[in-house]
Design a protein that fits this description.
The protein has four helices and eight strands; from the N terminus they run H-E-H-E-E-H-E-E-E-E-E-H. Helix 3 packs antiparallel against helix 4. Strand 2 and strand 3 (about 115-120) form a beta hairpin. Helix content is about 25%, strand content about 20%. With about 210 residues, it is of the alpha+beta class. The strands form two sheets. A six-stranded antiparallel β-sheet has the order 2-3-1-5-6-7.
Length: about 210
């Protein structure tokens, strides 16, 4: 009887442990959802003001959060830096392309206000499970929400109902749920979450794409 009771306890604990590791909603549906990932232009600089002189060491027009992110090597995510955003030669090996003309507001495809630079349909089940585990785990987020949201990446997934859209900003270390209630107390990404998401990005958009 004791061994049977012990076995029951073990099975209950195992089941409880398995349930506790389940990603929070709606990310629990992500592995079986249709998922689109977007590369986004995190910032669109306004036309330079006449006679304005940039501060030494600063890239004209860029917010300080993006400045710092780029100067730190964009945390290995140089493929997410919009083409033409960084003046040629400003940072060695980063953004060394001529600035491109930005289409007018009316004819630019956007995802929740951010210009879409590229998008991909995510079919790989392993990548979808990784994203569900990262975004659906409370321990991957810390700190109070901030007003900083320069999104380099967007996700939209649906299992047949309304889409669940989320913005991800590596330069701000923040996420922002756009069409659903964020399931965790915090929205700031931990260093481990940034690292894991960066690895997913490398698979979605390999360097050089």
């Amino acid at each position: 009887m004791k061994s049977a009771y012990a076995l029951t306890v073990v099975l209950v604990l195992a089941a409880t442990s398995a349930c506790s590791k389940k990603p929070a909603a709606p990310f629990d549906t992500l592995p079986t959802s249709n998922l689109t990932a977007f590369r986004l232009q995190n910032y669109e600089p306004p036309p330079p003001a006449a006679g304005a002189a940039p501060q030494p060491g600063m890239i004209p027009g860029l917010p300080p959060e993006i400045q710092q992110w780029v100067q730190q090597g964009a945390q290995g995510l140089q493929q997410l830096i919009p083409p033409g955003l960084i003046p040629p030669g400003m940072i060695p090996g980063v953004g060394a392309t001529a600035p491109t003309a930005t289409p007018t507001q009316e004819n630019v495809p956007r995802f929740h206000g951010f210009r879409i630079l590229g998008q991909t349909q995510v079919i790989d089940e392993g990548l979808k499970e990784e994203l569900a585990d990262i975004l659906g785990k409370e321990g991957n987020f810390e700190g109070a929400p901030t007003n900083c949201m320069y999104a380099e990446m967007g996700l939209s997934f649906s299992a047949g109902g309304p889409p669940n859209d989320v913005l991800i900003s590596f330069s701000c270390n923040q996420v922002n749920a756009r069409t659903f209630a964020w399931p965790h107390p915090s929205t700031g990404m931990t260093p481990s979450a940034v690292k894991e998401l960066s690895e997913v990005v490398q698979n979605l958009w390999p360097p050089g794409m």
